Amino acid sequence: METTQLLAELKPVVDRLYERHLSSAREWFPHELVPRDRVADGDPRDPWSEDLAPMPEGIRSALLVNLLTEDNLPHYFETIDGMFGSGGTWGEWTRRWTAEEGRHSIVIRDYLTVTKSVDPIELERGRMRQVSLGVVPRPPTPAHGLAYVAIQELATRVAHGNTGRFMDDAVGSKVMARVAGDEQLHHVFYRDMVSAMLELDPSQAVTAIADAVLDFEMPGVGIEGFGTHAKRIAAVGIYDFAVHAESILAPLLEDTWKLADVTGLDADAEVARDKTLAHLERVRKAGRRTADRRAAKASAA
Predict the structure, then answer these.
(1) Average pLDDT of the chain?
(2) What pLDDT, on the 0 to 100 scale, is given for residue 291?
(3) Is the pLDDT of residue 41 over 70?
(4) CA distance 282 to 141
(5) 3-class DSSP state for residue 160?
(6) pLDDT by residue (tens digit) across 94-117?
(7) What is the four-CA torsion angle of 16, 18, 24, 26, rounded to 10 degrees?
(8) What's the confidence (pLDDT) of residue 59?
(9) How far apart (Å, rounded) are the C-alpha atoms in residues 253 and 273?
(10) Above 80 in pLDDT, residue 43?
(11) Pair 74, 131: CB distance under 8 Å
């Protein structure tokens, strides 16, 4: 199915899912979640120190990466708007999604600034670099785009949610939970779009899912020092191979999209499906090894 035809065939689904989203979305205000009473006295130009907000380095890295990822919103909008177009319900969804995503960087940044949880100079330099470079995944077709964002939105929701659960600060946990709630609604929109695509054109959908899974990168890969931050985040269990396998890939590939049961595939899509399911098992094994090492390290401590 050609791209134009696919988007046209998905139009009724977009209309329905957008209406569902509007009825499910909850209005909220970033300023109500930020603990303004914790603004410390002193010159904001004073040097920042980790002692101002002690926490494991993995949690601090997660907060930094989560925020800088959200900061790249202009480039995400550009990519999605280019894939689906700015007219009709597609355009309405993209603009609404952008407006909702914009709150995420506002509330996380205000929280981090007030609580001095992250070096504000490092944060601003990171934002300038991230947005100036504009490094974001750019799927080659709308089918690939739908598959990628369905996975990415779930991964982002899990990353935000786990960061909040690992924090000792109840206010910070509430901030991250609120952001994760938005991401969940965004995820189910794209997840169900992919489900509809599987019915319309199973071969194209499976191939797109396979490419998204096998080449998956989080949208924060352009952040300076991302590899180091990712290792710290994985070390505390916020996002590692086990999380990626059991909280992202398995729920989508096995439970929702039921990739193993899809029928009517051409030869290339059959191969792509086999590679995808084999990849899931490899990530699962890597996750179990990581969990075993973490448990052994904790027992020895």
Answers:
(1) 95
(2) 85
(3) no
(4) 27
(5) helix
(6) 999 999 999 999 999 999 999 999
(7) -160
(8) 97
(9) 10
(10) no
(11) yes
Helix (DSSP H) and strand (DSSP E) numbers for the chain = 13, 0
Residue type for position 119:
D
Place of tokens 């949880």: 117
User: What is the spatial distance between Cα 195 and Cα 156, in angstroms, rounded to a whole number?
Assistant: 20
- Smallest CA-to-CA distance from 17 within 87, 76, 97 is with 97
Q: Using an 8 Å Cβ cutoff, are 161 and 175 in contact? A: no
* 248 in Cβ contact with 158 (< 8 Å): yes
Residue that has been written with the tokens 């396979």 in this structure: 210
Specify the pLDDT at position 157. Answer: 98
| Rama region for 29: left / alpha / beta (φ>0; ψ in -120 to 50; rest) | beta
Closest CA to 257 of 242, 271, 277, 240: 277
246-265 pLDDT, tens digit per residue, is: 999 999 999 999 999 999 99
Q: Which superfamily, per CATH, for 3-36+54-235?
A: Ribonucleotide Reductase, subunit A (1.10.620.20)
Q: In sequence order, what are the residues at sequence separation of 6 or more whose Cβ sits closer than 8 angstroms to the Cβ of residue 144?
A: 208, 211, 212
Considering only CA atoms, which of 33, 35, 30 is closest in space to residue 115? 35
Q: Which of 67-71, 209-213, 219-223, 267-271 has the lowest mean pLDDT?
A: 219-223
**For the segment 182-240, what is each residue's pLDDT rounded down to a tens digit?**
999 999 999 999 999 999 999 999 999 999 999 999 888 889 999 999 999 999 999 99
Between CA 144 and CA 206 the distance in angstroms is 10
The pLDDT value recorded for residue 40 is: 67
Token pair 């995400």 in the structure block, residue: 76
Q: Supply the DSSP symbol for 266.
A: -
Q: How many residues does the chain have?
A: 301
Residue from 279, 192, 167, 181 nearest 17 by CA: 192
Q: 188-221 b/e with 16+ CB inside 10 Å = b? A: bbbbbbbbbbbeebbbbbbbbbbbbbeebebbbe
* CB-side neighbour CA atoms (13 Å) of 216: 26
